[in-house]
Amino acid sequence: QVQLVESGGGLVQAGGSLRLSCAATGITVSFNDMGWYRQAPGKQRELVASISSGGITNYADSVKGRFTISRDTIKSTVYLQMNNLEPEDTAVYYCNALTWRGNYWGQGTQVTVSS
Questions:
Q1: What pLDDT sits at residue 91?
Q2: Strand, helix or coil for residue 77
Q3: What's the Cα-to-Cα distance from 106 to each of 78, 84, 85, 97, rounded to whole Å?
Q4: How many CA atoms lie within 13 A of 46 on its CB side?
Q5: What is the radius of gyration, based on Cα positions, of the chain?
Q6: What are phi and psi for residue 31, nearest 5 degrees?
Q7: Given this model, what pLDDT does residue 32 score?
Q8: Are the beta carbons of 106 and 6 closer than 8 angstroms?
């Protein structure tokens, strides 16, 4: 079965950095499109960053130049490096895998950025 488990969230000051991890079981991360989404209170869930099976990355305009998505096939983990964090980045961050069998989500990890 497919499972995605996020970790690495926490409380940081504006301008700080966090590295989120998504440990995946039941899939090969390089065979699938992987993404990070976030949802802030009162807002819809939005795509933050994605990486395709071919290694192509995409980012929301609001995080371009600050966030980087990457993957480690051996460790079966997808990462989101977040630099120069802003209070507007505060949200629950979710890992997503789009596979031929279906769309899978992790449980989420809270990121809070104080000003």
A1: 98
A2: strand
A3: 12, 25, 22, 9
A4: 16
A5: 13
A6: -90, -5
A7: 94
A8: yes
Q: Digits of tens for pLDDT over the chain (115 positions)?
A: 999 999 999 999 999 999 999 999 999 989 999 999 999 999 999 999 999 999 999 999 999 999 999 999 999 999 999 999 999 999 999 999 999 999 999 999 999 999 9
Angle value at C-alpha 32, between 99 and 112, nearest 5 degrees = 95
Q: b/e per residue, 65-104, with b = 16+ CB within 10 A?
A: eebbbebeeeebbbbbebeebeeebbbbbbbbbebeeeeb
Distance CA 89, CA 108 (A): 14
CA dist 99 and 2 (Å) reads: 10
DSSP E strands, 1-115: 3-7, 10-13, 18-25, 33-39, 46-51, 57-59, 67-72, 77-82, 91-98, 103-105, 109-114
- Lookup: tokens for 65: 């130049």
Which pLDDT score, from 0 to 100, does residue 38 have?
Answer: 98
